[in-house]
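Why does residue order matter? Because the sequence determines the fold. Keep that principle in mind as you read this record.
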Amino acid sequence: MIIRKAKIEDVIEIQAILREYAQAGRLLARSLSDLYTNLRDTMVCLDPETDRVLGCCSLHIVWENLAEIRSLAVLATHQHRGIGRRLVEACIAEAGELGIGRVFTLTYEAGFFARLGFHHVDKNLFPQKVWADCLHCPKFPNCDETALVLDLPPE
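Structure:
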């Protein structure tokens, strides 16, 4: 498996993977415009033999010392192989390189993130997220996702 920053050529495959999760109500759909605009936020996992995108995850900077892990999705045929873990770890490493000290996520997979060291917090700790993204969510204001946070050690 190859983990790397997403490229323009990956966007269509990323959107297709995210669409499956969005249709199942597991994450928000992302338009092509949004994916192209935020391409630099995204990591992908590739099959080394075919260069097919097997999964994706984004690190979205929210504020001075805060970033969000979002749009984590792995093809159903490739789940439970460590791809999601490696994608999140790559995003966490990037946050550390950027000097970001706190990473959060809103998720239906709280157990997965807890195993990576995240802990539960109140969603209201992230007003920037609420005003930037949550207002556009069809579930707002009745969000049923769990908020988790990971505090990174200072460099």
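The chain is about 30% helix and 30% strand.
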